[in-house]
Amino acid sequence: MPSILLFPLGPEGPSHRSAGEIMETLGCFSVRPPRSGLAAPLLLSLCGLLGTAPLLPAPARALEQVELRLPLLETSFIVKLEELDNPARLLSGTSDLAELDQASNGAIGRRLVDLFNAPLPLQVPAVVNEAEGSEMLNQALLLVSALGGIDGLPAQFDGNDLSRLLDKAAARGPLTMLSVMKALPGTTASVDLSRALLAVRRLARQLEPADRLVAAQPPAGVSSALSQPGPLAVERKLIALPAPHRPKPLQVVQISPSTGASGRLVVISHGLWDAPESFEGWASHLASHGYTVLLPYHPGSDQGQQQAMLSGKVPPPGAEELRLRPLDVSAVIDGAAAGLKGLPAGLNTDFVVVLGQSWGATTVLQLAGAVPSDAQLHQRCDEVLNPERNISWVLQCSFIGTADQAALVDPRVKAGVAVSPPMSLLFDTGSGRDMTARVLLVSGTRDWVVPPGPEAIRPMQKEAGRSSHGHRLVLAQGGDHFNLGSKLAGGGGVLRGLLLAWTNGAFAAGAAAAPGPDAPELLPADGWGDETLPLVGISPAQLRSP
């Protein structure tokens, strides 16, 4: 009888998990709204529902059952799709899972029925139609296929096939996991456990270098002068600044001291499908110490674009956004230099510090003078089993064909902080030697979206050579891709002291802040740590050691 085979896998290997968690881990289905950041295209809109694509074989009778396999118990449970319509059917059913549900007096069945019948939060067919042919979708499906090793993958499959299947399911009512599964053709699709385990082990290996470095020395201490809010009251307002490269003016959040501003300017760039609000805590902490902070919305890849994409109105962010995002930041600096209405007077726009997270951190590297290139993208994006392959490659590989036109250094940017940047494929080895701004790279030891091994430590090792040119690496022990930012109420989060210390050091150094073999330290020896997540500075000598 036709079935789908699912293998439950957790971060540490096989585990006992709910059907929803199993499917979510495998990228087959999801019923949760997407989180902001780089994980979103994989976990939901691109890998989640679009990940159903490999389950489509040639036309056949509809699926009738699902087999949930539990390798650790060396057993499996069969559930008939018709039994998932409501708890009563499962409780009175005859499948293996129905018998287990009966033994638990319906406790298991209620959860499963709720899970399978929850409305999916997307206008799915519209999303598929808009995403068809996008490089980001292609990379997401490639990653799903590599993880799952799905049997029976059609030789020819495109977005039209998936769209027809989803249209069929939608015609019967609101889309749910159950309705989509009932629309699937009826041959068996399975997940290759050995290949999935290889992917899990690969991720573990990508985190190990950070764990070793963090264990080798104590974390930075905490100084109240850096971690506590400054003496100045802070105000927030929304302004609009012209951007010749965009059809409309940029919306920009301004957070600055009510009085007593120093005239020093900081710009913060948000990540994919995120917004300035996720980093207003950073801005508020800096503003309380005298800085004026501007946080632009990147309209082609912010939360507004995400919402439009998930409603099927627009495709995923285009590769041209790699070039447009740095232009956004430069336009913000231009507006400040022109003294446009709404901005504080007397801002020094000849010396600017830029901060960013995830894709925003990649933007920081571009503005600092790192030169993107297509070379590694063409060479490595199709290497499914590459030991350095990780989720951030979904985004990086979507830039094929545009990376060579995205060198957009802004000489007014003198220093930057790049938190969790996707970078290993996008910038060739040696590109850091010609950077015009000093960069502090921050990575979390538990960041499985942009893992520290291939995306932070390895690139820094390649650049280190005889000299680090003054660029620095800090690892946040326990940091992941979502806990290093800070909303306004967060007071700056775990990085507040570190961001303030680096920014203070850059402005204090002035012209000496430029990269070079003898560049002075911008970070103080201590005091920029955090009590919640230990922060560890990694020296050039540690990076150069085997």
Spell out the blueprint of helices and strands.
Blueprint (H helix, E strand, L loop, with lengths): L2 E4 L2 E2 L2 E2 L4 H8 L12 H7 L19 E6 L4 E6 L6 H5 L4 H8 L3 H11 L6 H8 L3 H14 L10 H12 L6 H7 L9 H23 L8 H4 L6 E8 L8 E8 L6 E6 L10 H9 L3 E5 L6 H8 L10 H17 L10 E10 L1 H9 L7 H6 L11 H5 L16 E7 L18 E7 L7 H13 L7 E5 L19 H14 L25 E4 L1 H5 L2
Parallel strand pairs: 1-4, 8-9, 8-10, 10-11, 11-12, 12-13
Antiparallel strand pairs: 2-3, 4-5, 6-7, 7-9, 13-14
Helix pairs in contact: 6-8, 8-9, 10-18, 14-15
Describe the structure in your own words:
With 546 residues, the protein is an alpha/beta fold. It contains 20 helices and 14 strands. It has helices at residues 19-26, 39-45, 87-91, 96-103, 107-117, 124-131, 135-148, 159-170, 177-183, 193-215, 224-227, 280-288, 303-310, 321-337, 359-367, 375-380, 392-396, 452-464, 496-509, 540-544, and strands at 3-6, 9-10, 13-14, 65-70, 75-80, 234-241, 250-257, 264-269, 292-296, 348-357, 413-419, 438-444, 472-476, 535-538. Strands 6-7-9-8-10-11-12-13-14 form a nine-stranded mixed sheet, sandwiched between helices. A three-stranded mixed sheet has the order 1-4-5. A two-stranded antiparallel sheet has the order 2-3. Helix 6 runs antiparallel to helix 8 (159-170) and helix 8 (159-170) crosses helix 9 (177-183). The N and C termini lie far apart (54 Å). The relative contact order is 0.12.
